[in-house]
Amino acid sequence: MTGFVTLADSLTLGAASTVNTGDTAWMLAATAMVLLMTPALGLFYAGLVRSKNTLNTFMMCVAALAVATVMWALVGYSIAFDEGNGLIGGLGHAFLNDVTFEPRDGTTIPHLLFFAFQATFCIITVALVSGAVVERMRFGPFLIFAALWSVLVYAVMAHWAFGGGWLQEKGTLDFAGGIPVEMGSGFSALAAALVVGARKDYGRQALLPHNAVYVLVGAGLLWFGWFGFNGGSGFSAGNSGVLAFTNTLLTPACTLAVWFLLDLVRGRQVTAIGAATAIIVGCVAITPAGGFISPGWAMVLGALAALPSYAVIVFGRERGSTRRSTSWRPTASRASSASSSSAFSRSCRGTASPMGSSTATQASSDGRRSRRSRPRHTRSG
Amino acid sequence: MTFVLLRVIGAFTQLRGSEHEEAVGMDIIHHGEEAYASGEGAILITPEAGIEEELAVAEPR
Q: How high is the ipTM of this complex?
């Protein structure tokens, strides 16, 4: 808990022990916005699969809404945010025990609201993993998997990064959850794809996205929800929240602009699915750094984040037309740019200013490495 | 961790659908509904009515 207090102190600029109604109002709205990200992700994924699997893909995200929420209330929240030790939290808050209207330590919002906000993070992360197994995993086993995964994997990682675990003790600055959310879901998606295996017809026919409009609408709604995701991660309506909010506008916009430029410079058409990918890449890139860097550097980060993802898509496309859709896998772009941006946040210690260009280069090369391996696995197992 | 978890679940039940299920599409097999109905609107198939029959209707891929 001490680790958490330290972080929260730095974010809220002096924690008060009373509930602040302004902060609470914003966090209520932010929680609903983050919740919307899960159906948005369902839409995004549904557009990317073939038409015969549309509902199943969407339903996996709906399943996350149900299963992850219940598990989070029962034990997940406690494992993530009760004191415990560096590796895992205790069971003091199981079944919402002691989660009340009193402010959560280090914040100015009610503990109940803090719980609800964190629940939405758990839900979206479970939904993200589903992207690796769509079109072939049975629905029943997925429900079981989602229930267990949300507790055994997500809650534990959330404890490490937010709940006073070892990552936080070591001073990792992860503003809105690049490590548990994006890296956790990314690597888990890789593992899940390995276990479940490739589609039977993979490599035999083109696996193309069936509805680009869904993908764009999904990406748009995800972007909207991300304002709550990043803007709410300061747990206040204060400066860090405002900064993260604005950066959530700037970074994806820059990624998008650079993406368009790259398409045009190469003499290609600017594709809708490429644009949707760029939005997600930009949102993921700003997540861990949102409240720590100045708007100018957020724009630079957005521009740089476009490069590794774009490179992989070009690389993937050159590997043959049947594999084209490989590079569009959303899990791939999310996971890999998460690793790039959390590398970035690791090396960016202070607020705002100190971000040398070497940091950014390191971040993008880091992202490029994982990005190259990931799309292949997610699609092919 | 995820790998182990899925292996354990996989030991009790089949994780992925059969080749047949994959070919027909997960919507019809697991939800009894289609996102894009051809002709009469959204369909709900009872398991007895025969997924096999529906195969002919399902879009060829």
A: 0.72
